[in-house]
Amino acid sequence: MRTLAAIAVLLSLIGLPLQAKQLKTKTIIIEAFQFNPSLLVVKQGTAVIFENRDGTPHTVSPDNAGFVDSGRIAGHERKAIAFKALGDYPYHCAIHPSMMGKVRVVK
Ligand SMILES: [Cu+2]
User: Fold this and answer.
1) Distance from residue 21's CA to the centre of ligand 1 (Å)
2) How far is the CA of 101 from the centre of ligand 1 (A)?
3) Per-residue pLDDT at 15
4) CATH code where residue 36 lies
């Protein structure tokens, strides 16, 4: 339940209300300096949780615009990001530029 509470706080921070039936999330694991999966396809309205399992901080930073940079996600912490419009959102880690991934939002 701690995890759910943490997600609720994160979602409220990005403006998504926590309502049991509406809570749709997908998780991208950050581990060994990789985003997994590196391409995540989500339905519109899904919040993406980035879970950092490394001991070092990472960021989820947009290659272009399109979503708000995560800032530093400390080791063993997580952050929810909302991808609002349909389309592709390539991103990278600003600390380790070789780390790249993409979220695709579909109907
Ligand atoms: Cu990184």
Assistant:
1) 33
2) 12
3) 54
4) 2.60.40.420
